[in-house]
Amino acid sequence: MFSALLYSARSTGAAGRILSSTTQRAQFSTSMLALRAKLPQEKVRYMPEVSELKLADYTPKSKRTGVIARKKGMTAMWDEWGVRVPVTVLQLENVQVVSILKTSNPALARLQIGCGTRKEKNVTKPMMGHFRAHGIEPKAKLFEFPITPDAVLPVGTEITAAHFVPGQLVDVTAPSLGKGFQGVMKRWGFGGGPASHGNSLSHRSLGSTGNINPARVYPGKKMPGRMGGKNVTVMRLPVMKVDTALNCIWVKGSVPGYDDQFIKVRDSIKLIKHRLFPDGAAVPFPTYIAGQSAEQPREVVAKVGGQDPLIPASD
Amino acid sequence: MSRNVASSQQHFIVPQPQFDQPLTKPEEKRPNVMKVIEREAIMRADIDGRSKLFARRAAPKARLCAGDVVFVETQNNMSDSSSVTSFTGVCIAIYRRGIDTSFILRNVIQKTGVEMRFMAYSPLVKRIEVLQKGEGFRRAKLFYLRENPGKTFQLKALKKMAQSAATAKKH
Lengths: 315, 171
Fold this sequence. Notes:
The complex is a heterodimer.
Chain A: H1 2-6, H2 22-38, E1 67-78, E2 84-91, E3 96-101, E4 109-115, H3 125-134, E5 141-147, E6 169-175, E7 180-182, H4 184-188, E8 225-227, E9 231-243, E10 248-252, E11 262-267, E12 299-302
Chain B: E1 12-13, H1 33-45, E2 69-75, E3 84-95, E4 102-109, E5 112-119, E6 125-132, H2 156-170
Antiparallel strand pairs in B: 2-3, 2-6, 3-4, 4-5
């Protein structure tokens, strides 16, 4: 329903119209075909219109925007039961909405998010034009995030660490550490050859590469080659702590890649037996807005909850 | 009047004491986030001045050294502060990692070598006490004591622990 309100079809096509009967649909398709035959093909593009930044009600189907953060390093903390939790610190440096992108699907909008700062002399002219057009300072990194139309933010909105709720789950995407040219045992987990029994020079080799019948190697055969340096997504990492003054979030466990690199953080999409946000949490939707959202202390730590894991079960 | 009002049943904990501003030093022009975080975490965890024991640049008398006889008291869980376990041993290694600092104690109890690793700033570790300074150790890590203990684990302070373990078994 809201898509009809928020979206405006930017083309001459009447694709947004709702057609009830089959006859109407048939007429519509024939008329469209005729139209397309005459006119040069033009795709229907949708773009949500947002005028002002204001809080909205979060629904389980809503999809908030993700952010680009910087991996700062790993440390440890203790939860309320005294259990040590290894954590990675991610910092949000000048994260802003750079532009709202047009999409072909009215149910999915896209936001372009920028992170960091870059000197103007180091920015190419086309990119500088892009930043000027939206009235944004040059950013070091840009990335797009798909969202639902109710979570659209106006251009220039700053996203802070308070966008995340302690205890929620996030997915983190970043290029992994480059491992260089590696053999099949390390790269694909092959078993290798035997250590003895007359084995010669093939302790770590891959063995056969296929049958004699096709007289060729099938595409996609796992072989030695470059390993690492590719995007890896680690899913369902709990946010352990949020610091609004340092603009940092603490994420449980490790995150791919090296320190100080840009990584993408978004709300978790795989929610098996889990809720995205902890019970009783006020969801900052579409994001945390200073002045409008309820104020929170500088640092908030997630409550793990449940029973004390250090007390042995008595039965 | 906003719709996203924090409910009374809080899902989060606010760490105490609260610092309104990050603990940066005036000489730091662009503060290193990890250092600030570590400083704050140690300020919070340092309840009895134990951070001085793990300072890298302190006189050997003031800090914990490999070879010292150390007594550690730990809570078994956070729910019941009365259930406590204590352990005495020779410190054979210290791993200085800021808030993640840990050390290993070794002792011989009932003819069995026992090693325990303690996290220095864990909220479960209630007390760390140096009973006796070590003498004649020239290395940072004393793993050689596993093979060549000599008379290291026959010290009076360590024997007490072995005796108490023996008496506990009798009762």
